Amino acid sequence: MVVPTINQQHPHKSYHIHHGTSISKPLPPEPFRNESSFVLAGDVSTEDGESAPIRQSASSSYPLLSPPKKIPNPYGWMRDDTRTNETVLNHLHAENEYGEQMTSHLKDLRKEIYEEILSSTQETDYITPSLKTSISGESSYWYYGKWEEGESYLRYYRAPAKEDEIYLPPVNEDWNHHKKTNCNNNETSLPPLLPSEELYLDVPTLAREKKYFALGSIAVSPDQKYVAYSSDEKGGETCSLYVKNIKSGKVYTLYHEHNTTELLECNGSVYWSEQSDALFYITFDNAHRPYKLFRRKIFNSNGQWIDNKSVKDELLIEEKDELFNVLISKTFDSRYLIVQSSSKETSECNYLDLWPEDESKSNKLVCIAKRQVGVVYRVTHCQGWWLVQSNIGTPNVSLKACRVGEVGMDKWKDVVTANDQTKVFDGSHKRSIDGVTIFNPLASSSTTSLAYAVVYGREEGMPRIWILELNEESETITNENTSPLVVSKMTRLQFDEDAYDVG
């Protein structure tokens, strides 16, 4: 018979003993229950008499509990947003150790599966370069990223484009074959993909020697002199913001307003103003809900960095309904900043004109349509029109349009074909939309089309991609519910392969 033993480091762990065998099995660490801990639910008032945040939709018809009710919260002690509580950390370490012990027999299998996946993965690869021209038109670059074998993160590069170059030049076919020699840890061993290649953000170096690192997003300034990026270095899905001077390599850190010690915390999304002097970002509330959109001017009129003691954040929107989150994006042509407030079943879109003819309107958000319970919508800009994708009155997402500046869902009109005025996407079960991307014709193009739309969606359950040619034809439209923005030609992409992935 085997004598029971106790793990001295973790006394709470014991071992099951079976007669006639020496099989042992550790018990999982059990967190203690604080039976006196609770949270209040209902109409809660703070000490200063003001109402505390209410976790209930503003449209709810149910009254709040009054007086509030105590809800047991025995494991509330485990929440530690600072990630510094030793009691919590010790418990997590004990859980990790238990997990390692219970799965130790799978070590060889894990290695085998990992190597099998790795063998079918092209580790050294690159993202197809995309052309970006500065807002002044003085400089153009091809932007792309490269993965290198053994690295977990992308490196971001750019290469100068020739004057009037609009198509990607031939890439160096040996970019991943010949290795440089005598490379230090901050340098890639790969030859350039395009001539005069420049590394502007080295993420593997940023992540090196950090216990955790996740890149949030990156954004190159419209004048192409700076790159803003966000990163999460704690694993709490909260990001810090940085701005790097691409030429000099100097990195600026963003702190809380009038504070030089606490890093600015945001949800990771970051966008530039068109003047390359300000950033847009979103902050969290106490429940980790993205709810406030700010604009911070970081460079003065002389192009100098504004000291944090002098910086002033400008609040553009605050979402007070706790069922809604705030998200931001830029239209494909960079003309508008889209601000979307959305819950699981309802959404509302506002926009900010980043190229206003009237500077007095540069701070004004415009609502496209007020939220309506059960109606979800998103918008795509197309040459002075909003292409609206919404489920209003339909089981699936339909395609409608309204002019920029028009407000309200009653302004949304169906997008139809030019020849027979048939709805292109009517929101029926047969066909739905997942997304729309607009491409404007080149100035040198001979096409008469206003714009081209790439539509991603499904037809009879299968993923599809359609190409739409869009035009304005006010004279031929007779139905008041039909938009003058019509589809003159619609083509669904076809593939010869028996099996393929669409996306």
Task: Give a verbal description of the structure.
Mean pLDDT is 87; it is low at 1-20 and 181-185. β20 and β21 form a beta hairpin. The chain has helices spanning 86-102, 107-119, 203-207, and strands spanning 38-41, 69-72, 125-126, 130-133, 140-147, 155-160, 198-202, 214-220, 226-232, 240-245, 251-253, 270-272, 278-284, 290-297, 313-318, 325-330, 336-342, 347-353, 366-369, 377-382, 385-390, 398-403, 413-414, 431-439, 451-459, 462-472, 485-492. The protein is globular. The chain has three helices and 27 strands. By secondary structure, the chain is mainly beta. Strands 3, 4, 5, 6 and 7 form a five-stranded antiparallel sheet that branches. A four-stranded antiparallel sheet has the order 8-9-10-11, with no helix packed on it.
